[in-house]
Amino acid sequence: MSWRPMTPQDLCQVQTLADAIHVSHPEDPEVLAERQRLYPQGCFMLVEDERAIGYALTHPWRFAEPPPLNRLLGAIPPSATTYYIHDVALLPEARGKGYAARITDRLLAHAREAGFDNLSLVAVNKSQVFWEKAGFRVVAVPGLGAKLASYGPDAALMVRDLANLGTTPNGVTSAMKKF
Q: Which of 5, 49, 117, 156 is the most exposed, fewest CB within 10 Å of its CB?
């Protein structure tokens, strides 16, 4: 099994996986396709014997402003301050085998190479423990409660710092935005 870059031809498989894995968080095909089109270098497939068993969708974004579920982004903002992990999704048979850790390492390396000093995500479906083991921590952002609630009852905004750079007065780490 290996992670490889996602192509537009993979999007039907991505939709099938998303529908099976994220029953409580459905997303339209256009949403998944837009993520891949806007930032293909941040999208990956996990394949075993030519069968898709997982995917990852990531892109630059603005810290503490997670995109609403099932909404088009329109564009990657020029003011992106974080490398955002939209989704790392694995079928049950692929879990617990180190594949999520491998793609996380790849995403960390990509974020560093792109000049970001942090990655962020919204942990859902009891994934917070995995992300904490990967070095992410929960951050509380005033006014974000209602948006996080739309992700589900256990949703938590998490961040992984990549550099010890200064923070702004509100605690948000600045990024270099070299994507």
A: 49
Residue 36 Cα distances to 29, 56, 75, angstroms: 11, 10, 12
| Tokens matching residue 104 | 């996380």
At 42, the amino acid letter reads G
The pTM for the full model equals 0.89
In 3D, which of 40, 121, 128 has the Cα closest to residue 87? 121
Residues 121, 82: Cα–Cα separation, whole Å: 9
Question: 3 pairs with which residues across the strands?
Answer: 46
Q: What is the pLDDT of residue 1?
A: 67
Domains for the chain: give ranges and CATH numbers: 2-161 (3.40.630.30)
Does the pLDDT of residue 9 top 90, yes or no? yes
Give the per-residue pLDDT at 179. 34
Judged against a pLDDT cut of 80, whether residue 16 lies above it is answered with yes
- Three-state secondary structure of 2-13: EEEECCHHHHHH
β pairing state of 82-90 and 118-123: parallel
